[in-house]
Amino acid sequence: MQPSWDDLRIFLSLAREGTLTTAAKALGVSHPTVARRVHVLEEQIGARLFERLPDRFVPTAAGAELLADTEAMEKAALSIHRRSAGLADTVSGVVRISAGEEVSALLACHLPELRAELEQIEFELSARHTLLNLSRREADLLIGEQMPDSADIVARKLCRTAFAIYAHPDLAVARLSPTAIKTVPWVGFDDDHPRMPGQRWLQERLGNGRPAIRCNNWLVIRETARARGGFAILPCYLGDNDPQLQRIGPPIPELFADQWLLVHRDLRALPRVRAVMDAVIALFQRERALLEGKSTRGAAVPLS
User: Fold this and answer.
1) What's the CA gap between 283 and 9, in Å, rounded?
2) In sequence order, what are the residues at sequence separation of 6 or more whose Cβ sits closer than 8 angstroms to the Cβ of residue 278?
3) How many other C-beta atoms are found inside a 10 Å radius of the C-beta of residue 264?
4) What is the Cα–Cα distance from 90 to 93, expressed in whole angstroms?
5) What is the pTM of this model?
6) Cα(259)–Cα(106) distance, rounded to whole angstroms?
7) How far is Cα 47 from Cα 64, in angstroms, rounded to an integer?
8) For 41-58, what is each residue's pLDDT tens digit?
C-alpha cells in the first residue's frame, strides 16, 4: 500500500515542528491522530522515521530521505494549488491580504471604499508582525518592509513611510531639545522588538535607556500616547490624522520604512488579485502626502 499524501503531510509537519503537540496544532488535528498516522506510515514504509527523544522527535536517516522527497511533493502540490486558482477569469471571490498592524489599520480605514470599487470581492485582512507565506498560499498579497529572497515573489514598491514624535496635546511642546528628550516620559516597543523603526534612535538619545511604558504593537503604543502616557515615535500616517495626537517637529530624517506589495508570480494575473493590487497601489498613491509625513497637520518645528 502506497503512503497517502495526508499521512505524508502529517510526517512533514512533525519533522518541522518537532513535537506531537505543535504538529497537531499546526495541522488542526488531535495529538493522538498525529502519533497514529506516523506509526501507520512507518509500517507502510518499513522503517523507523523518527528518533523519540525526551523533548522532541528527530528524523532518522530514513526520515531525512523521506523528508526531502515529501518537501518536493509539497512544493509541487502548492504550485498546482496556486496555478489552479489562476485559471479563474472573473473579478470575484476572496482576496487575503497580510500586513503589519500599522499598515492594516491604514487599510482598514479604506476598506469601505475598496469594497465600493470591487463589490464582487471579499477581503480578508490579517494583521501580524510575522507575515504569512505566499508560496504556501497563506495569503494572496503581502504588504511588508522587506524584499523577499525568492524568485517566485514579485514585488512592487508602494512608498517610503515617514516617522515622527507624537504626544497628546496636553503634553505636547513646541520642540524637544536633546536634554528634554531624556526627561519627558516615553512609550515604545519592548525588548523583543529591537528592530522596529525608532527603537535604536530613541535608545541612543536616552543614553541607552528604555521607555517607561513598553508595548509590542504600534496601535497599542498609539493608544497609550493618546491616553497621555507619554511621547511616542509613530508612523506619520498613524499620527497626523489623529486629533488626540500632536506631532512634535517634522519627520525624523533617518527614520523611514519602505513598503512593498508582494505577490506570488503564479497569482499576479488572477483577475481578483490583480484588481486588488491595482486598488491598493492607487490608494497608496492618493495617500502619499500622509505616508511621507507631508500632510498639512504636521508641525514644522525643528527637533534641535
Assistant:
1) 39
2) none
3) 27
4) 8
5) 0.69
6) 13
7) 12
8) 888 888 898 888 888 998
